[in-house]
Amino acid sequence: MRYIGNVYRPPSEAESLIIQVTLGCSHNKCSFCGSYLDKHFSVRNIKEITEDLAESTEMGPVRRIFLADGDALCIPQKRLTEIMELVNRFHPESERIGVYASAKDILRKSTDDLKQLKKLKLGIIYLGVETGDEKLLTKICKGSDYKQLVEAGLRVKEAGIDLSVTVLLGIGGIEGSIDHAHGTAKILSDMDPDYVGALSVILVPGTPLYEEFSRGAFKLPDPFGLIEELRIIIAESSFTNCVFRSNHASNYLPVRATLPGDKGKILSAIDSVLNSRDSRMLRPEFLRAL
Question: Domain spanning 11-287 has what CATH number?
Answer without folding.
Answer: 3.20.20.70
